[in-house]
Every structure is written in structure tokens, then in C-alpha cells.
Amino acid sequence: MSEEVTIARTTARDDISPAAQVRRATFVLVGSAVLGALALPWLSTSYATTLAIEIMIAAIFASGINLLVGTTGLVSLGQGMFLGLGGYGIGIGTTVLGLPLWLSVPATLVLVATLAAAIGAVCTRTRGVEFLLITLAFSQMFYGAAIKLRLTNGSDGMSGIPRPDLGLLGLNADSPVVFYYYILLVTMLAVAAVWRIAESPFGSVLAAIRESERRAAAMGYAVSSYKVGAFVVAAVTCAVAGILQSQYTYFINPDSMSWQLSGEGVLMVIIGSTTAVAGPLVGAAVFVLAKQGLSVLTTEYMLFFGIFFMLVVAFFRNGVVEAFKSAFRSKP
Amino acid sequence: MKRTGILAAAMLFAAGAASQVALAEDLPPLKIGLMLPYKGVYAVPSEGIDRGFQVALAEYGNSVGGRRVEVVRADDELTPNVGVQQFNRLVQLEKVDLVAGVVSSSVGIAVSGLADKAATPLVLVNTFADEITAKFCSPYVARTSFSANGFQYNSGKYWATHGIRTAVIMGPDYSAGHSFLDAFKRGFQEAGGKIVQEIWTPFQKTKDWGAALTQASNSGAQIIYSFYAGAEAVQLVKQHADFGLREKLPLVGDHWIYDQLNWSALGDLIVGPEFITTYLPTAKTEANERFVARYREMFRQDPEVNAELGYDNGKAIMLTLEKLGGRIPADKSQFIATMRGLVFDSPRGKVRFNASNSALLEKVYVVKIKKDPAGNLLPTYVDEFAGAEDLPGCTKSF
């Protein structure tokens, strides 16, 4: 990989603009990341595969949050509610109503989208700290419902959530390796979709709203509908993460809707970068690995994790990805 | 006489162990993952469980069938998602042969589903919620303590037949709280008692019981019957006293409300109230005296209920491993099946398992703490009753 990067750099020095240079390096990096991800189960231990699964699920979650935080400039502290709703959706669909998974998943996503449109219509009337608090309030409401309702089994949560039946392909999704590829596929699709949306004209309007909401409105865009749209897409993305999370652990409980989880998601976005596509991915990886690594070293890892986070914010003001990019640009 | 008996048994055991050493010399050590919430609300009880567990292993010289036994610790932080991560770490990275421990029922439910899929034996220490060995039962999961119903159902009957007609129940709003207090409620109501009010406080998030205690004192009940553990128990007992309710509306509960590990924090508040417990450190049985002696030797203090539960957990594992000659069978559910067949004398009494791998309680004591002239706190026997059977609900056959 280092060899390829060098090639990219030497050619770039001659006749290609710095922007193209970064683009090419990114292409190589993404390419090797995908190849590495494909080969991972053969190259490493089963535990690394499990960690990778956790990273990818976190990355989808963070991508959803980034569409609000990074692209649209709305900092939400309630995205955990959609993660939880995703898990509870298929939990109720499959274990209570007895529906097959292929029906439960789309039904859940449609329901989450509808609900997010309603919640988003209320929340996006506010901005800044108010937006943060109202999303937090909604998520606490759903948390409360999940912990109180008999249907969702209270704090026990719902267990027995099925993984996809891949019997037709002769595969068993209970196997970590098979499940890994399933997650990898969904992650690539989800991240690509979020990326396309952020790059689309729709995404450009969201960015315009982030930069100056008044100017965007003055240009004739229906700002509030765009914000609700971003809210819905973010919610559905988080719900996808929730579905995968509940399949990974075979269960869902109210903890998956906690505000701490929403906060962790925002942290991942900030660690990675709010402005780069790969930001949430890198942020999720750094978050999961740092937490895991520190917790193996010491039981007081939360303290060091806090320090680590402060260092990241202090030294990589725009996140790890942007820091990498600027380091690359400043090379002669 | 007794002494020579023990000595002879020890020598026989040593000879047996020595002969097995020769056989199994080249086998790698057995690894047991011990997952407990070492920090947070249940930090103190977890410490007790960990120590009891160590005592059980030390009894076997930390080896069985000639194989050394290693313990790998993990902290589940009382959170199911962290529990799942730590369980995966223990099984996949540390390659443990089985996982022991687990205090919170919520974490227990999450990891037992995982143990079932991963076909890894899971030997739960606490996780008293009835559904763990009922609705969520698995051939790979056993519990060495008891179920909420086993502990509290007959307690309800006991208090209802000992002069208490009305009660308020108060507890943490999560699976164990509901399981314990619902079991009490069933027994209490069946014996003619009346639950005037139910008060549930958010688990791990409550610091102030003012509102709950005001509601309770306005209810007109005779007692508050409650379950709390760890730091929450200390807070409640203190605030209950601050509200001046000790005479008017006594706080009745179990050995976690008045946990021995909290006595130093409670001071004289511990003297007086009656509560139920599964373990009497002063019990004059051989199993208990041996346990107390070894515990004192290792930790220079007296064991209490959490240590006893940890000991039972370790003891059941070691007895099972001993029966299997230090080898985990290829079909790992056979490990749990072997454990299910055990009957042994534990410090708390005779331990046996039911068909869905849940250990049963032989008896429950009612005790009261008295202070002797020298200022020592002594648990004093008041009464006892039998433990109840578990609730049905396990539909799997194994």
C-alpha cells in the first residue's frame, strides 16, 4: 500500500493539482480498505472479525449522524432512538407478530421514516442547543416507552432476534465470518448511499443550510422541508445500524436507545471528521479500537478514554481524517 | 476423629490429583472467564463474589484433573451491550473454556442468548430474574444461586402469616427488581396480605428516595418491602432513617438491603431490622466452617452472602470439572448437563439443580443484627422457611 501511495505522490508532484492528488490518494486508500476488509476473516483472528463487525455497525450509525451534524449542521443528541427503533422494529415484527425478516426489515424502515418525518417536523423548527435538547427529549421519551411497555419486555428487552436466513446460499449467518460479510455488504451500501445523498443536489442544499440558513431560504429553497428530509434519511440510516446491532447481539434492550449511545455517535463523528465522507468510518474505528484497547490495558479505561478524546479534539480540530489530509497536502 | 477423616480425604484427593497430573501434563490450562460489574452500583457485591470464587478455586489448589485453572476477569459495567462485547472478547480473544459470573439479570439475558448461539458454557452467579432459566433457558446456561421466586415467594407468605397485613413494595425498575418483588407479592397476596402501593425507581439513576419515601409513608401500610443492592441499598436505608420512618414504617427486605459489605457505611442503622437471607455465616455445618476458615485465612475478614454466592459458583464449576476429569466435553452442553446432576453441601445448605439448570434454595433464614457488649455486630437467627420452586416457563428440552 505504501508503494502505491508513493507512486500517487510522485506523479502528483509533476502535473496534478493538490486536489487531484488528495483524490487519488483517497482512491488508493479506499481501495485498499475495501480489499483489506474483504480479506480480513482470513488474515486475522475471529476476535478481530468481531471487532470489525462492531466498527462497521458503529460506522453506519455515525454516517447517519454525520448527515445531520456534518452536512446539515444540526447537532442531534437523539439518534440513539432511531437505532433502538430499528432493533425494536424487527424485534416486534419477528418475535411478537411472527413476520418473516424480509417483511419486518422494510416495514421497520418505512415506519421509522414516517415517525422521523413527524418528529423531524417538530425538531427542525428549532436550532442549536434547542435542537439538541428537543431531540434528546424525544429519545428519552422512546427510551421510557421501551422500558415501561409490556410489549417490549421492559428492561429485559427482546431476545431471539433472527439473523438473515442464508440457507438458500448454503450459508449460516450464525457463523461470525458469514455474518461479517453480510455486515460488510450492508455497510458498503449504506455508506455509499449516504455519501451519494450528501454529494447530490439535495446534499448541496443541506450544506448551504449549514453555512447560512437565511441565504438558502433567500435563494428560494424550502429550507424546512430539506431539514426534515435530512432528518428522515439520518433516522433511517441509524435504524439500519440498529437492525444490524440487534442481529449481531440477537437482542435489543432499552440501553440501545440511551442518550449515552447518541452521544457516543456524535463523538465518533467529531473524532473522524464532520467534513469528510470517511469521517464517520474512521471515527467509529478509532472509537471502538481505542475503547477496546484501553479496556484491555486497564479497568479505569474511561478516564484515559476521556483524555484521549480531549487530545483528539485539541490536536485534530477537524477530526482525524482532515488532519491526515492536511498533513498530506503540506508535504513538499 | 473428624480431623483424621478430612486428612484422609485430603490425602486421597492429593493422590488422585497426582495420578491425574501424569496423564494430563501436556494439556493447556483451563481458562474461566469471570464477568462481574467491578465498577459502579454493584462494585461492592462484585468484590465479595470475586473473593468467594477465589476461595472455591483455592480449595482445589487452582487445578483440576491435573490442569491448572486460570481466571480471566472482565467488567460488564452492568450494561448488556458491554456484556456482549466482553463475552465475545473472553470467548474469541481469550479463548476461555467457559464463562462464569454475571450479576445483572439484564446482562444475563443478553449473554445467555449469546452463549446459546456460541455453544459456550455459561455459569451464572446471580442474575436472579426468573425468566433466565425459564423463558430464556438454554442447555448451555446454568445458574448456581437461585431464582427470585425461589427466594422471595415464601418470604411473602412468611410475613403475611407473621402479623403483616399491608405492605408497600419498592424497588429498582429493572428485571431483577420486578422478579424479586413480584415473587414476594404473589406469596404475600396468596397468604392474605395486601399490597397497598408499588413504587419503582429508575435503576442506577436514583440518588434521592425522598419522593418514593413520602409516597410510601402516606400509603398507610405497615411495612415497606424492598429489594436494592450495593450503593443504592446504602442510600435507601440512610434516607429511610432520615425520614424518621424506622418505627412507623419499617424497611423490610433481604440480605442486599442490609448487606454485610455495607455495614460499615450504615453504622448503627443495621441494628434492629429483621431481614431475610440465604446465608448465615454462623451456621454450624462442616461446609460452612471450612468455607469461613479458608475465607478468613485468605482475606482476614468474615465472608458474607455475596462471597458465599461467588463460592457456590466456583465450587459448582470445580466439582463439574472434577467429574469430567478436567476436560471440557466436545459437546459443551454436556458440561452444563453434568453440573445439573450435582448435589453438594454448600455453606448455605444443600445445593441441587432443577431440570432447567437453575440451582434451588434449601432454606431461607430470617435474621436480625444484634450488637454484643463489645460492640461486635452479630447476625442472629430469628426463624427460617423453605425456598420455593422455580417458576415454570422453559420450553426447550435438554
Automatic annotation (TrEMBL), chain A:
Q: Which GO terms describe its molecular function?
A: branched-chain amino acid transmembrane transporter activity
Q: Name one GO cellular component term.
A: plasma membrane
**Record carries keyword Membrane:** yes
Topology in membrane: Multi-pass membrane protein
Q: Where in the cell is it found?
A: Cell membrane
- Per its UniProt record, what InterPro entries does this chain match? ABC_transp_permease (IPR001851), LivM-like (IPR043428)
Q: What is its main location?
A: membrane
Annotated membrane-spanning segments are 25-43, 49-69, 81-99, 105-124, 131-149, 179-198, 219-245, 265-289, 301-320
Q: Does the keyword Transmembrane helix apply?
A: yes
Give the UniProt keywords, A-Z.
Answer: Cell membrane, Membrane, Transmembrane, Transmembrane helix
Q: Tell me the PANTHER family matching this sequence.
A: ABC TRANSPORTER ATP-BINDING PROTEIN, HIGH-AFFINITY BRANCHED-CHAIN AMINO ACID TRANSPORT SYSTEM PERMEASE
**Stated name of the protein:** High-affinity branched-chain amino acid transport system permease protein LivH
User: Which organism is this entry from?
Assistant: Bradyrhizobium ivorense
From TrEMBL, chain B:
Q: Does the keyword Nuclease apply?
A: no
* Signal peptide from the UniProt entry: 1-24
Q: Which residues form a coiled coil?
A: none
What processes does the entry annotate via GO biological process terms? amino acid transport
Q: Which InterPro entries match?
A: BCAA_transport (IPR051010), Leu-bd (IPR028081), Peripla_BP_I (IPR028082)
Q: Which UniProt keywords apply?
A: Amino-acid transport, Signal, Transport
Please report which protein family the annotation says this sequence is part of.
Answer: Belongs to the leucine-binding protein family.
Provide the protein name.
Leucine-binding protein domain-containing protein
Source organism per UniProt: Bradyrhizobium ivorense
